[in-house]
Amino acid sequence: MQFKALSLSLLALVASALGATTSHPVTVSYDNVYDNPNTPFSAVSCSDGSRGFITKGYNSLGSLHLRVGVYVGGAGVIGGWNSPQCGTCWKLSYGNSGSIYVVGIDHTGDGWNIPQSGMDALTGGQASQLGRVEAVATIVDNSWCGV
């Protein structure tokens, strides 16, 4: 049994190294704190530590220089402070409405919690009406987000 678990872990590591993507269904909601460029990185899980944004010289959400149309948010895959998933780039897809890219900067219980502006872009301007949606999250190369 341990051999099987080790084999699966190694397979996942090799797939990651080769650029394979991992997609899974998630719920997406919004929080306006991520819309505020003055929100300090000290308020999120990916603050300091070796993987933190403060350590890399960023003080607030607005200090990140992401590609136009890329958002930041909290994700269930970010386990907490200094998570290895801090700063990863994700593609969120919702039905036929399209997709957006999001940089993981914070922990949330399940799924994704993104700015209302990002959820509006994802749902065709329906964030406040829908509140929470089912989407698909796919980890992608950080170059898609400009990180």
Automatic annotation (TrEMBL):
Belongs to the cerato-platanin family. Its main location: secreted. It comes from Lentinus tigrinus ALCF2SS1-6. The keyword Transcription does not apply. Residues 1-19 form the signal peptide. It comes from the Eukaryota. The keyword Membrane does not apply. This is Cerato-platanin. CDD domains: DPBB_CEPL-like. It is found in: Secreted. The lineage of its organism: Eukaryota, Fungi, Dikarya, Basidiomycota, Agaricomycotina. One of its GO terms (cellular component) is extracellular region. Keywords: Secreted, Signal. Pfam families: Cerato-platanin.
